[in-house]
Amino acid sequence: MFLYLFLIELLSVAWVTTQDVVPDDPEVQMQMHSMFYTARVACADENMIPYANVLQFNSTGELPDDKDKATSMCYFNCFFEKSGLMMDYKLNTDLVRKYIWPATGDSIEACETEGKDETNVCVRGYAIVKCVFIRALTDARNKPTV
């Protein structure tokens, strides 16, 4: 398990260093991870969703079509808002590039326009989050790792 986490961290650092993104120093990274944890717990308390939905979304960018889908959308919108990754449907480019994926080109702007006509806060926020994850997953699949 620890080897797996170490490899993921190592690949993340290698990926970030090749993307022109300067990683935060370790102390700031620890603070950010603590903030992400706090946001995750707060949003989980507000939006009781099956953990399986989080795992599925993190690996596929999709939520299952079930009774918890609307609540799951609220959870991801909540997490991005409370963690500072997004505010008022605008992505924090620095945080997204450092902690989600090193977005290139017009990816940030393109994702921010997702769901712009949606009146439901959770659905609109989720559309942006989903765009970020789909692009991150696609980039990860298309970048060879050595």
Written description of the protein model:
There is one protein chain. This protein has 146 residues and is an all-alpha fold. It has one domain (2-142): Recoverin, domain 1 (Orthogonal Bundle), CATH 1.10.238. It is 66% helix and 3% strand. It has helices at 2-17, 26-46, 51-60, 69-82, 93-99, 107-112, 121-142, and strands at residues 86-87, 90-91. A two-stranded antiparallel ribbon has the order 1-2. A hairpin with a 2-residue loop joins β1 (86-87) and β2 (90-91). α2 (26-46) runs antiparallel to α4, α3 packs across α7 (121-142) and α4 (69-82) crosses α7 (121-142). The two termini are 21 Å apart. It holds the Pfam family PBP_GOBP. GO terms for molecular function: odorant binding. It comes from Drosophila rhopaloa.
- The biggest beta sheet, please? 2 strands, antiparallel
Indicate the overall shape. globular
* CATH topology title: Recoverin, domain 1
Question: How would you spell out the order of helices and strands?
Answer: HHHHEEHHH
Range of helix content: 55-70%
Report the average pLDDT across residues: 83
Euclidean distance between termini CA atoms:
21 Å
Give a quick summary of the entry.
The chain is built from seven helices and two strands.
Which keywords apply here?
Recoverin, domain 1, odorant binding, globular, 7 helices, disordered N terminus, 146 residues, General odorant-binding protein 84a isoform X1, mainly alpha, two-stranded antiparallel ribbon
